[in-house]
Write a structure and sequence with these properties.
By secondary structure, the chain is α+β, with helices and mostly antiparallel strands. Helices cover 34% and strands 34% of the residues. A four-stranded mixed beta sheet has the order 4-9-8-6. It has a three-stranded antiparallel beta sheet with strand order 2-1-3, sandwiched between helices.
Length: 151
């Protein structure tokens, strides 16, 4: 079965790659999860759109990764407002990687990929929490997210 990947698939390839996989793997895993689309002539145009979107958000090289790391450390503590219980400091729900990406962008920081963010555990309390971001295989940035009670 010939497919075009829409996201990174470990051991198979990256977005926009045309791959040949066994029928069952494609039908039962890649297609239902949205990791790939069937390779057709119209899909080739979609591949170009996928690649352009990936290029816009990708860290280009080691120097660019170091530049983004400098921008993240210059931010200091990134504020993030979340709904919390009044006295206990516990959040209703938890902070996701998408929330962290939005908070960094709102604080004037660089646009990050939510899949590159490593959290030590779920953030479910108000306070300061350490967050790591894998920018490049050789560069990892660490910054602090300060969760404040809102509402």
């Amino acid at each position: 079965m010939k497919l075009i990947l829409t996201t990174d698939v470990s051991g198979l390839g990256g977005p926009g790659d045309a791959v040949e996989v066994k029928d069952g793997y494609g039908r039962n895993y890649l297609l239902p999860k949205g990791y790939a689309i069937v390779a057709t002539k119209g899909a080739e145009k979609q591949v170009q759109v996928i690649r352009r979107a990936q290029e816009a958000s990708r860290i280009r090289d080691l120097d660019h990764a170091k530049e983004v790391k400098g921008a993240l450390t210059a931010l200091g503590s990134v504020p993030l407002a979340a709904k919390a219980a009044s006295n206990s400091g516990k959040l209703f729900g938890s902070i996701t990687t998408a929330d962290i990406v939005a908070a960094v962008k709102a604080a004037g920081g660089p646009v990050l990929d939510k899949r590159a963010i490593d959290l030590a555990g779920h953030i479910k309390t108000v306070g300061k929490h350490s967050v790591n971001v894998r920018l490049h295989p050789d560069v990892t940035a660490a910054f602090t997210v300060e969760v404040n009670a809102a509402g």
